[in-house]
Amino acid sequence: MKYKILILDIYPKVKYRISKDLNGGYGTANDYGDSWFSKLLKLYVRDAINFPTLFSVQVCGELNTLGHEVEFKNYSSKINYEQYDLVLVPSSIVCHESEIEVIKILSKQKKVLVIGPFGSTNPENYIKSGAAVLKGEPENFFHKINLSEFIKNFKVEIIQNNKVVSLDDLSMPGWETIFKDFTPVMKFLGKGAAINLYASKGCPYTCFYYCVYPMQQGRKLRLKSPKKVVDEMVYFFHKLNVKNYIFRDPVFSIDRKHTILLCEEIIKSKIKFNIAIETHLKNIDNELADIFLKCGIKLIYVGVESADEEVKQSAKRWSDENDVQIEKINYLEKIGIKIKTMYIIGFPEENRDKFLKTVDYAIKVNSSYAQFSVFTPYPGTPVYKDYEKKIIAKKFEDFNQWKLVFEHKNFDESSVRNLLDLAYKKYYLRFSWIINFFIRKLL
Hints:
By secondary structure, the chain is α/β, with parallel strands linked by helices. 38% of the residues lie in helices and 17% in strands. The strands form five sheets. The chain has a six-stranded parallel β-sheet, with helices on both faces. A six-stranded parallel β-sheet has the order 11-14-15-16-17-18.
């Protein structure tokens, strides 16, 4: 039997960009600060980057493969919900209260199933609002599912999903469904639509102490075959005219051999893709950087976090020495790969002076882009147990990486927001950065 399913994405009305796909599927909301410059930066980024959760796209693909009709829409009261047999709601921490508000209304008339990492690890409020909650990776659950049986026996409960499906066995992601109502973009890569995808899942690194990726994906590394990855890229290049691709792997180059094989496969396609990745500087050397350039990698996100060793150790973060990081970033920028470095304020042992030291270090690194966000102990991570009694946030939507959500011994909410404003102005209002920005625009 053929069913009609709606994937309903729900967002609060705010003036900054929200992405549910980032931060391991918990989501982030780019509320950079309160100064005039931070507000301009929010507006600029809001329209430059926008894409759905990749697990939602993969679920579209699994259901399409089984012959069901799937639609992906942002929430609107004008949607005729009566026509759907099942409504799937991608969960997040950054839209949590907004999601609950809609689910309370919708669950009175429809079967609502919450999917995604945040609902999986924090199901209680969703259950109370009248939705069932799927634990685990939703694409695995919907792979070859007997949907008739599932809908027939649907209950408002926590559904334990222990199905394991290899990345190679999953269906083609349902981007054609997404593109009917929504065009994802990543303007920092280039003009036109953008698609996000995986070459691997799972991360064994020690920063799982505060990182949410391992909670859904696990700490064991799982790889998709390079040919399967490139087949998807080539398919969507021809089918949807997409040449911009964002790899959502927690650490793109964690397996060097697999990474090189993937890059070689991309080069063999002879298509000029524009690619963004996120990785760890420890996994990059000049040889790999040159291969990255040849296969079309134009933008790399790297977490630097802090310039202070004591601060990094307190957060169980390991990295290259500061001078080595600068050397690697300078080489990547020199050969034509833009770097976005990511820094954090509010680690347990941090104070104002140590953070300002990090800002000065960021200026010395001088990457194309820099991001300053706030240390956030997320529900479900090991670090949350240490902070649970110190939480001061009134709602989950405040856990957006730009607000202090706990009592810190050296900072309060106001001082953190002021330091964020200071960091962004010091970094981006430099004459040298502004000139280089316009030069890059002209190239």
